[in-house]
Design a protein that fits this description.
Layout: H1 14-21, H2 25-31, H3 40-53, H4 59-66, E1 71-76, H5 82-98, E2 101-106, H6 111-123, E3 128-131, H7 138-146, E4 151-154, E5 162-166, H8 168-181, E6 186-192, H9 197-212, E7 216-222, H10 227-238, E8 246-249, H11 252-266, E9 275-280, E10 293-296, H12 299-315, E11 323-326, E12 330-331, H13 340-344
Helix pairs in contact: 1-2, 1-3, 2-3, 5-12, 8-9, 10-11
Keywords: DNA-binding, Repressor, Transcription, Transcription regulation
Organism: Tianweitania sediminis
Protein name: LacI family DNA-binding transcriptional regulator
Length: 346
């Protein structure tokens, strides 16, 4: 990179700051080291000079000296998709606030992509790894543990690893009870053949609760937990007769696909013809086109729980692993709004 006069552009270094401030190079280092001994007036001169020059600490060089990278790997399959995008953003914000550097690792789906993702994560000597629900293989957990890294998993459970999970079971059971209390007996479950741990928990809890309360749940599954998977599941529902009176979708993206497909191809609309409930409460759930009743996953609350676990694990690497459950409160909108008297009795 060069400027207009042909000279090479370079980062401002600590020696330039020292000259501008009229102090030693070591004084600059102490000024930027938390807890280091330095006179207040000297530190003020260094900071003023650094601001004038636009100097930033070279954390890469510092990590080589301290053998601590401050990189934290955030591992996900398709981190841009649905709720995972919002959780990845929340984790990145929380890690930066903590003083860490988030390293987003998209595992991909092929063996070649997964191997490349593992090399990127462990080649940069990340100090910790956070693995999101989805399909990142257990090999990420094993490699992290063998490299002495703290590991936090979100939305899944792994042996001897700290984990953060959402109350999938409680929410799915509540969905089934709400439908039955409203008088619905023909229920639908829209799931996914991706069969991630969180999705399986929601599917199994909903179907078990429906059966317990005397309702029949028709189960259909799309290829994946996305909009296209929702439309595919809706096609399967249309092949059955009659249609369910109420449908629980394992996430909001699938609910959007179900609503659009049934509205466009079967003239079935919510809430007039059928009730639909989702899971996640992504921002699009509040759009007028969907106005989706759903269970909310709070990405900031999940990220905060993961950061607390990370701090705890780094403070004591041998402390027993813990599992945290984050509530998923019901967000009522117009795709399903139970009668107040029946809702209060749940």
């Amino acid at each position: 990179m060069s400027d207009q006069d042909g000279s090479s552009a370079q980062f401002v270094n600590a020696l330039q700051v020292a000259k501008r401030a009229g102090v030693s190079r070591s004084a600059v280092s102490r000024a930027f080291t938390p807890g280091a001994s330095i006179a207040p007036e000297t530190r003020e001169k260094v900071m003023r000079a650094a601001t004038e020059l636009g100097y930033q600490v070279n954390n890469l060089a510092r990590s080589l000296l301290t053998n601590r990278s401050r990189l934290v790997g955030v591992v996900a399959t398709a981190p841009e998709l649905g709720f995972r995008a919002h959780l990845t953003a929340a984790l990145s914000k929380a890690l930066i606030k903590r003083g860490s550097v988030p390293l987003i690792i998209n595992t991909g789906t092929t063996e070649e992509e997964i191997n490349a993702a593992q090399q990127a994560l462990f080649g940069y000597r990340a100090e910790a790894t956070i693995i999101l629900s989805g399909s990142p293989p257990a090999s990420f957990v094993d490699l992290a543990k063998r490299n002495g890294q703290p590991v936090i998993v979100i939305g899944r459970s792994e042996p001897e690893v700290d984990s953060v999970l959402v109350d999938n079971i409680v929410a799915a059971q509540q969905a089934a009870r709400m439908f039955v209390a409203q008088g619905f007996t023909r229920l639908g479950l829209v799931g996914s053949r991706s069969a991630t741990p969180s999705i399986l928990e929601r599917e199994q809890a909903f179907c078990a609760a429906a059966q317990e309360h005397g309702a029949k749940a028709s189960i259909v599954r799309g290829v994946d937990t996305d909009y296209r998977g929702g439309r595919e599941a809706a096609r399967l529902l249309l092949a059955q007769a009659p249609l369910p009176q109420a449908i629980f979708c394992v996430n909001d993206l699938m609910a959007f696909g179900v609503i659009d497909h049934l509205r466009s191809l079967a003239s079935q609309s919510t809430p007039l013809d059928l009730a639909v409930v989702g899971f996640d409460d992504v921002p699009e759930a509040a759009w007028q086109a969907y106005d989706l009743t759903t269970f909310r996953q709070d990405p900031d609350a999940i990220a905060s729980a993961a950061i607390k676990m990370l701090d705890r694990r780094q403070a004591d690497p041998f402390v027993p692993p813990v599992r945290a459950r984050v509530p998923a409160p019901l967000i009522l909108r117009n795709s399903f709004r139970p009668s107040p008297d029946r809702f209060e009795s749940l």
